[in-house]
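Q&A log
Question type: sequence-to-structure
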Amino acid sequence: MRENRARPLAAARPRVMDTDCLSTESGGCECYVDVPEADSIGCVEVLATVCSIVLMVLTLPISLFLCFKVVQEYERAVIFRLGRLRSGGARGPGVFFVLPCIDNYCKVDLRTVSFDVPPQEVLTRDSVTVSVDAVVYYRIRDPLNAVVQVANYSHSTRLLAATTLRNVLGTRNLSELLTEREAISHSMQVTLDEATDPWGVQVERVEIKDVSLPDSLQRSMAAEAEAAREARAKVIAAEGEMKSSRALKEASDIMCESPAALQLRYLQTLSSIAGEKNSTIVFPLPIELIGPLMNFTSSLGVQRTTAPLVQQQAQGVRSTTTSTSSPSADPGPQPPSE
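Response status: OK
Response body:
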């Protein structure tokens, strides 16, 4: 009877076998395997189990309300009998049976749980202090390990997430932190999943929420970005001017080959100006039409400028002739000398 009860309890915990291999003189190999003995139930445990069953029978049907428990679809129950983990793994979903006074159980929620990592002051690899916070999503993969291997899996996962966030971000530059958030989140998720695997916890996703920079650094980055945008705008404007000048040169070459194209361009310009309802319309004239008129006006201007010069020269000659004939005349009364 004792051996039959010991078998299911031993099946709940995997046996650890120690294997030692030694090489023989003939070149072979001899292996020794140590198989641990199964845990047996003591007399006290058997007596407590019998007493619990007798108590349950004496208190029927009231004891039925205490012996049958229900767990939801998203929950599992880990049962301990007199401090030992019962065989068969976690119970649920549905109804399961416990003995009064000797069995106790712990419910584990299998749904995905999310929590916020508090803002962490991190010094990046290029010596910039930033404040970063994140969100972690995890769920219980193995209810037995979550209860047996760690005291409080939720609190332990939170502390480990904050530590991992500081360690991962400390190996990155500020530019990588701002541009490679997905890669950093994936690296954190892999690190946390490996660390929490013995606890039966699976980290599904890690997301970086916000990266807070100092005010002075924000102003300097804004000035740098503004200067870069202005330089890029000037380059784009210069490229546009170059392309437009090339297009104008090609258009002028085509118009030189066909004078009618120039006249059509004049008419198109007039139609566009007239469509805007302007009170003043400037009509462009070809240089070839007003060339003779400009030559005529220039010749008239030359004549007008030379005529006054001839008159001034004639007046100058007359004045010199009058000045030579003036000494034979009466000089007039002389002023008295003192």
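Response note: The chain has a mean pLDDT of 77.
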